Fold these 2 entries.
Entry 1:
Amino acid sequence: MEENLRDKLLEKNDFGWKNVNEDEKTKILDFAEGYLEFLNKAKIEREFVREARRVAENNGFKDINNFGKLKAGDKVYFVNRDKSMYLAVIGSKSIEEGLNIIGSHIDSPRLDLKPNPLYEDTGMAYFKTHYYGGIKKYQWTTIPLSIHGVFVKANGDRITVNIGEDENDPIFTITDLLPHLAQEQMDKKLKNGVEGEDLNLLIGSIQYDVQDNESVKLNIMNILNEKYGITERDFVSSELELVPAFKARSLGFDKGMCAAYGQDDKVCAYTSLMAMMELENPLKTAVCILSDKEEIGSMGNTGMESHMFDYFISEILNKLEVNRPNLLDKVFCYSKMLSSDVDAGFDPIYSSVSDKKNAGFLGKGITLNKYTGSRGKSGASDANAEYVAWIRNLLESNNIKYQVSELGKVDIGGGGTIAYILANKGVDVIDCGVPVLSMHAPYEVTSKYDVYSAYRTYKVFWNMA
Ligand code: MN
Ligand code: MN
């Protein structure tokens, strides 16, 4: 009797793996294989867009610019400057009833090259960097780094760079002081132990010509000129990003977790992309956002704050031949969204920063964050109870395990996502993603159970009326 009352009234949020049968386990592990493979091909936003476009085209999606008219069932995409992308499957219901949107971001914390990066000091050549997003700087020293991105020459020629990933490529690294001589450094605050201006990438040490006193630099430029046809000035119109050269791998003897760079937020981007690829004839128009610049505040023309997204939806309205003044605003006001971004996973080693009753645990399924923000919910998009109820019902009726959490204890810190940007347009939005350990570190950890649970959530969301 007492047991029944417990089952009936009290919340018991158990670990997902406990109730997974062999068949489901195989599905979860197989899905993760595809995810890890994708991560190895898409470490930066431009590579993610390239891969996502390839996957989309293989699944019948076409550039919206190739459509004169749109009709129910059509699959379209729009690529914004090769760094962000929107996809949609046109629904059979009137678009005035709103969109079902899932939005993630495909940029991740990293080190960017400065516009004038190359210098030589004491027989060593270096690239100067400026970090991108919130990083713990000391984590980026003494690990193998690769260089990804583009040079665009003054005549518009674009040269793609990807060096350090292939086994036969060299890698690069940022050095740190040996412990023997680091007494002063070790006494500093952790955040000052390695300064931003010291994050200089070691790139070479062989002189071109013994007569010249900057000949290591010259030698590097000569190599780059032979390989890419560039001169030192071409760095000013480049976007070159340093990311860990680590491969995405399975983690643990049981292989239950993923270890990889950039899972914030490529885990939600990949799972939503995969869910959209399997979507056929939804009732409501389904929209997938893969945004850029989230890690630095979503500003700029590839960030979510840009009007490019409104433009994409307006183009859909135009090509459905239903557009009229203010229709875009109406569509947004009737839309629903999952802001699919990662959550801080509860780390037992650092448990003091989390409220255990309100934390996201690895292996307990997708995490909902009713609100984000910091210090009294400042800056938060706080989902309405009515909308949370709707999402809950969706997950519960489809037997998808979920958890509801906050990012850390009150006043400990905080964070934000793209949720508020869409909420400001009138969309009902809730944050909904995968818990991560070591977020923003060169190597982040997720549970394969949660990755699969995100994929399932996104699928049922888009299939909803
Ligand atoms: Mn994120
Ligand atoms: Mn982040």
Entry 2:
Amino acid sequence: MNIVVLTGAGISAESGLATFRDLGGIWSQVNLEEVATPEAFAADPERVQSFYNARRAQLHEVEPNAAHHALVRLEREWRKGSFLLVTQNVDDLHDRAGSQALLHMHGELRRVRCLACGTDDRWEGPVTSESACPSCRTQGRLRPHVVWFGETPLHMEQIEAALEGCDLFIAIGTSAQVWPAAGFVRMLPRRAWGIEINPERSAMASSFAEGRRGPATRELPLLVEELLA
Ligand code: APR
């Protein structure tokens, strides 16, 4: 039985990172048009850099939670097929928890991309107009390695191949309002079983066979226990 897991901001909520669309979420504090589009970056790169610099700095204040660790346990102990974790999150909590079969389809706060040479590299700390590319040394040509609205998510071929062979799809902590991730549940083979873990019904809840209505730190360890029993 091949498992594909999709996570969204909700899995990091209990670690203290704000989600985007819950009450008081990031997009109620900041206009996404001003910080999360290529046009915004072209118009005011400093504003965009400072938005991501602040979110990158916040990573030092948070830790992976029981839900992140439950996914690492499932990945390590699952013997009945393949396992792939696809995250929409740009935080590093899955990485720090120890997930290996992990694809960041919206990029990562802890990486920068050079507009001069095209490489992406690990990056701690703030990015400024003086920051030099670790690969080509060009200064002032770095952008967050984050997929903005209107841009193409990363690793889509690998994700689509995994969905074609998927028997169990588990979506955790995503409102299913941003495509293509929202449509993954509709790309599954007919035999696949879908489970959604979310205190609320997501926009795609009706496409899932099961909805486990509760916080990820409670529902996910229980589900992993069941799967590994
Ligand atoms: N456990 C599980 N789910 C939770 C929890 C929790 N403790 N708390 C909140 N949630 C759920 C909310 O009910 C909501 O459905 O997490 C979801 C968060 O939804 P969004 O804030 O829309 O986040 P997400 O779905 O990841 O957004 C997708 O939108 O802004 C872009 O690129 C950004 O990756 C992001 C994408």
